[in-house]
Please model this.
Amino acid sequence: MADKIVALKVDVDTYAGTRDGVPALLEDMARFGVAATFYFSLGPDNSGKAIRRIFTRKGFLKKMLRTKAPAAYGIKTMLYGTLLPAPMIGAAFPDVLRETERRGHEVGIHCWDHVKWHDYLPWFPKHLTAMELGLAGARFEEILGHRAATTAAPGWTVSPDSLEVQDAMGLSYCSDGRGTRPFYPVMEGRRFRTLQIPTTLPTADEILGEHGITPDNIHDYYLGQLRDGLNVLTIHAELEGGAIRASFVRLLEGFAAAGIRCVTLGEAAGRVSGAPACRLFMGELPGRAGRVAIQGEEVP
Model:
């Protein structure tokens, strides 16, 4: 087990997740001496607008019911951007970002408007893609006093234009997709130069309620899935820092008992050498409604 390494990636999607979930995760990670990479949504929380996915994404309603999303995310969150105004996340909680970095975690950009990117990126003109990342980058620098070194796409949703904009930002690496190992992306025949560190394990919302996996045993599932070398696990502030917090603590206990080291994605990226170029495409994964960016075959 000592040869297994876990890079923890924390997606922070919402106002409530930033306010409540991140401090909870910081507390739990501090108990175990664990560092992670936190990706923050920095603009408006328009979570309520995601309701339209019931009509546009096959399996979305089933997933919402299976994972008890309304209870996990809260009624107010489910109404932001529709019946309730969309609160601005980064402006409301700059101290949460600062405290996360102060405690030794890596902090990166998730997005400006999570729902807008997730649902509409394929139809964005390039200037709108650049504007969304530019707004997030400006707010990030305003809060932390330095530029972001990494981004992670909402819902693992990418386009050739988004990869091009990331290249222009001079990032150290990104974590935009799902796959098996670090690589340089080639999408629709275009090659990009920013290293990708993909998520290798399924997320809790993809597997809870499937094949007997529950909040009480999901930690055993993850411990059994770890392979030698680098494993990348994406967690969500709203779930592992809230509704299934106890499950995440049991997982951290399992890592500690097995001698498994947790690292930031930046530390993992710093150890990469000779990463291949691989195709990146939008495809489907079990348990997830809609398409995500998936690492494909190597490209000469």
Q: What stands out?
A: The longest strand covers residues 4-12. The CA atoms of residues 94 and 172 lie 23 Å apart. DSSP finds 15 helices and eleven strands in the chain. The chain has a mean pLDDT of 93.
